[in-house]
Amino acid sequence: MVSRALTSFALGLALVACDGAKSTPNAAAEPTQDKPANAAAASDDGPGAAPAEKPVDITPAPADAETWMEFSSEIDRFEARLPAAPQKQTFDTPNPLGGTIPTTMYLTEEGSRAVGVGVTTVPPSALESFDLDGALDGARNGMVNNIGGTLVSEKQIEYAGHPARAIEAKATADGIALRIEARLFFAEPRLYQVLVVRAESEPFPAQKFFDSFSLLGE
């Protein structure tokens, strides 16, 4: 249910990044398989990828951000604390200049709550003419319009060391009033969407989640 908001958000960003091309999932969402530090097997980012540097808490408690698990992606260059191991889904969006632009969503969903990170990687061929403000507008509009929501506020902030937008919106899905909070920013060549969707009546430490996010190598 609430994952619609996060997926719509990711698609909205990808559509604008690709100059309006249609975007479709290339695979069903699958659980990631994160490993503790020093694990011999490769991480979910693919064969040969380095495992997460920080250990994973194998007993995450969704109500308490201090006990969430550490998650990191070497490919998409971020780390954050999540209530549980996220589902990973990648969308291939046709690029008018040739090839595709991938958008990957890492999503943890439980009941009326979803926490996730979306990453759109802009190819070198598109960076020169890339419209950042247009892409961020598209991500915002994708989130709000595709779930029939309403934008509540939008502020310019600094986040993860980069200029960013802090966005709040509201919507109703399956009779439940939802609150959506997001941080949007660009760290070349990636656009990041750090998101929380929850029932408006449900307490949730969204700010602790936002504070836990950082970019690898920065």
Q: What's the total helix number?
A: 4
Beta percentage is 35-45%
Compressed to H and E, one letter per element, the order equals: HEEEEEEEHHEEEEHE
Radius of gyration: 16 Å
- Low-confidence segments, ≥5 residues, pLDDT <50? 13-63
Query: What is the CATH topology assignment?
Result: Protein Transport Mog1p, Chain A
User: Do you know the CATH architecture?
Assistant: 3-Layer(aba) Sandwich
- Strand tally is 12
Q: How many separate domains?
A: 1
Global shape: globular
Class per helix and strand makeup: alpha+beta
Distance between the termini: 34 Å
Q: What level of helicity do the residues show?
A: 10-25%
**What is the CATH class name?**
Alpha Beta
The largest sheet is:
9 strands, antiparallel
What does this structure look like?
This protein has 218 residues and is α+β, with helices and mostly antiparallel strands. It has a single domain (3-28, 86-215), classed as 3-Layer(aba) Sandwich (Protein Transport Mog1p, Chain A). The chain has four helices and twelve strands, in the order H-E-E-E-E-E-E-E-H-H-E-E-E-E-H-E. The strands form two sheets. Strands 1, 2, 5, 6, 7, 8, 9, 10 and 11 form a nine-stranded antiparallel sheet that branches. A hairpin with a 2-residue loop joins strand 6 (100-110) and strand 7. The longest helix is centred in the first third of the chain and has 15 residues, at 3-17. It is globular and about 45 Å long. Mean pLDDT is 73; it is low at 13-63.
